[in-house]
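Hey, I was hoping to borrow your eyes for a little while. A protein chain has come my way and I'm curious about its shape. Take your time with it, there's no hurry, and the full record follows here:
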Amino acid sequence: MTQPGTIESGAITTPTGRVLSPRAQRTSIVVAGFGQNIVLTTVTTFILVYLLQYAHISVEGTVVVTAIITVAKLADAISDPVMGSIVDMTRSRWGKMRPYILFSALPVAVLSTLLFAIPDISEGGRLLFFGVCYFLWGFSYTVCDVPFWGLIGSAFPDSRERTGVISHVRSFGAIALGLATLGMPWLALALSFSSETTATGWTLAVAAASVLGMAMFLLAFFNTREKARGDRERLTFRQLFTTLFQNTPLLMVLLGSVLGFGRYIVQAGGAVFVVIAYGNEAYFTLIGAAIIVGMVLSSFLTPVILRVMTGKSLILWSSLAGAVFSVLMYLVGFQSIVLMMVFIFLTGLTLGIFVVVQTTMIADAVDDIEQRTGVRNDGISFSTLTFVSKVMSALAVLVFGVFIVLAGYEAGVVVTPEMQNTVFIAITLVPAVSCVLSAVPFLFYRLGGPVSGRVENRDSGRNSSVGA
């Protein structure tokens, strides 16, 4: 334990004389990730509900919305490696990642609010407004997210410490997911100042959540520092992309992740499903709580399990378990909300394991390519994490949107058993197949054993004071 008046080992003194201990940096990263996830969860979880229930988008409009979200996410995914390479080529007094964290927070907060402030105009105008805002939001979020994950890899070179930080970021991210999922409908109702939730209530609720979330995110700029790496020459696009495609372990993680897009379908369409299945969006509080508890629990436990089991083995077993739980959920049915919560909790366990192990695998792959080539490309390599997350999310929205269209659902329509079953297949059998497919590429991941606390051999001076 650190005694009062002492400085922790590995502490950094800034040019202004302020001491940043490792504990302060870890805490700030976790809080920043927590705030970021509040904003992300609010947008990804409730945007379809808002558009269908409060912006009154028709079935035909839903087709357009699905296309907009899918194309925007794919465009964002493609831009992630570009953003990562820009980060790697950046040189500033704040480092190469922290400047983007500073200047992206306000645009993300503003655009998140605008997505839930669709004006009361013609449907074509509403769709155009949504499309423009969603594309801009996706770009702004890329600018904040890619450097954030690269900063974790840079600020924490010890593999065991880094795994713990990633675990806590993921765990508290899941808690943020829970708070936003469970709390936003109630906050929107409270800010509607009436007995029923209104579109204005959603606008005010999202504005409040966005300002608070991105204010916390700024702690990643103020209270962390990138480790100095000497006077390295400026990397070129060719060097960055060459080393990226030489990194076979990283490519296997990316392919396995994309094939596992079905894991995100419950998040993308769960709120709509409960309206169709139970006629009450408040039931999503129960479903959301179940998956979040599972994710939080497994996110905290995963670093402990990784001490005795390889990431490869853990992700393979969790993928197969996720497939089994999803199939069983379909066979049991959704009539019992209690049984639904049990199975959603179990799938949440497997999802929590996946997101932690996926991130640690990417970090290990970054270290491996540096050892083999001498090129340290945190930005472009960690951009692949956001790349696959967006591709997975885009595919989840696309597939769920297709099932919504096939079911013929829109606000006010009479819900039939056939409609319910169609949407239920989307959140059960589709994820099951997806989990099985995603396990295949991970069979070819060749790095790593149990996490042992190794410290990578990086440039001398990495514990030097850096940044302002």
Q: What stands out?
A: Residues 21-227+249-442 form a domain with the Growth Hormone; Chain: A; fold (CATH 1.20.1250.20). The chain has one domain: 21-227+249-442. Residues 1-7, 453-468 have pLDDT under 50 and may be disordered. Strands lie at 12-13, 19-20.
